[in-house]
Amino acid sequence: MSDLFNQAQRESGPVTNIPEFTISDISMAVKRTIEGAFTLVRVRGEISKFSLPKSGHAYITLKDENAILEAVCWKGNLSRLQIRPEEGLEVICTGRLTTYPLRSGYQLVIDQMELAGQGALLKMLEQRKAKLTEEGLFDQSRKKKLPYLPTSIGVVTSPTGAVIRDILHRLSDRFPVHVMVWPVAVQGERAAAEVIRGIKGFNDMDDDAPDLIIVARGGGSFEDLLPFWDEGVVRAAAASRIPLISAVGHETDVTLIDFAADVRAPTPTAAAEMAVPVRSELLSYVGDQGQKLTRALSARITQAGLKLDAFRRTFARPERLVETHQQRLDTMNMRLARLFERLTGGYEVRLNRTAGKLRAPTHVIDQKRQALHNIATRLERAGGRITEPKQQKLSELQRVLASLSYHNVLERGYAIVKGVDGKIIADAAQLSPGDTVDMIFAKGNAKARIS
Questions:
Q1: What is the dihedral sign for C-alpha 33, 39, 42, 45?
Q2: Residues of 9-40 as b/e, b for ≥16 C-beta within 10 angstroms?
Q3: Which of these, 37, 101, 330, 399, is most buried using a 10 Å CB contact count?
Q4: Pair 213, 240: CB distance under 8 Å
């Protein structure tokens, strides 16, 4: 019995009290342990790798001096992050730890992400500015000239803040124009997207599009102004076909949209002053220019009158100038008449002499007519002499032809017999009883049947 037990022990292995687990059981146990111990964590590290596959989920590798941590940000949370993940950024990620059983690893599921300190933020913004500068978005050649007197102005700003009231008040004081407000959030997560829609929305208008766009907000902290450093906002401002003024923050505040705008205003109120001239000053300027024009025109008329008087004194009366030329014209006319008379007198004598030598046209015509008659008479006699023998010979031939004609034979009682094929039958052997023939007589035709 003991031998049998030892043999069974050797075959089944040593006896132990340690429980057996499946791999899935281990994975789930580890998952529960990690997720229970780290329900919500904040992790600081540098993004060393960032990938965004077609699924829309972001896969990130965080590192510090001694370790790395794999992380994932699901598509729904990625669009709500305050910053866009980029390699090299030092960030603080808030989320929960979990495991990934297929690789026996653990990872951080990111819910929020922020830059780790203002230094990292400034580094990212400087890199963005350098990239957009290299693309040429800030080139001076792209800047458009502001209209001198716009008929309508589009303002992209918060509809409830003091900024829009300051702009409207300043425009009303200087030169009232039609103002369209595109309401947006000017800080927070929604601000950048709404500002982009506002700029593009004004540009997409057809006939109602404003002549000028002002993007404005009041002062605030560096973090409050971050939406105006957004790359999408900068590109929308640079692509605007309508001239655009950037009026973000106070005079000392500088944002990235300031470089892409056609003009940067130090304050929203200053933007309104740049947008329109002062109406009273413009009216005064137009009045002064009108007076200057009137005085200049009056002086020119007076000067022209003085010159005209000087010309009058210098030149003789016009009729006296004409009298001299009229007398010269009369003299030339008389000389021309005498010259014409001398020339035509000589030709008249020669014409009379030639006319005496000429005969009347009727006499010449009568002579030609008589000559023509004589020729016709001679031609008629000559023709008779030629045609008479020919006519006699022709008559003789006609008589011979008539005597040889078969019609004369038919007149003597004969007939021509033709078969149905129209051929003349000269031999009775060609016919058979029942055949039909045509018989041609001197007068008329007839059909006959052979019996």
A1: positive
A2: eeeeeeeeeeeeeeeeeebeeebeeeeeeeee
A3: 101
A4: yes
Residue 1, pLDDT > 60, answer: no
Q: Which two tokens stand for residue 295?
A: 């005085």
| Mean of the per-residue pLDDT values of the chain | 84
Compute the average pLDDT of residues 153-181.
93
Q: What angle do CA 115, 121, 123 make, to 5 degrees?
A: 130
Q: How many Å apart are CA 281 and CA 121, to the nearest integer? A: 46
pTM of the model: 0.47
Q: Using a CB cutoff of 8 Å and minimum separation of 24, what contacts does 190-199 make?
A: 191/227, 192/227, 192/230, 192/232, 192/233, 193/232, 195/156, 195/227, 195/228, 195/230, 195/233, 195/236, 196/230, 196/232, 196/233, 196/236, 198/156, 199/156, 199/233, 199/236, 199/237, 199/240, 199/244
141 vs 120: CA distance, rounded Å: 32
Residue 3 CB neighbour total at 10 angstroms = 7
Q: What is the pLDDT, as a whole number, of residue 251?
A: 83
Name the percent of the chain lying above pLDDT 70.
92
Residue 120 has pLDDT above 70, yes or no: no
Residue that is written with structure tokens 């342990």 in the block: 33
- CA proximity to 153, closest of 284, 268, 251: 268
With beta carbons less than 8 A apart as the criterion, state whether 213 and 257 touch.
Answer: no
Residue 282 burial (C-beta neighbours within 10 Å; 0-12, 13-18, 19+): middle
Q: Is residue 15 predicted with pLDDT exceeding 60? A: no
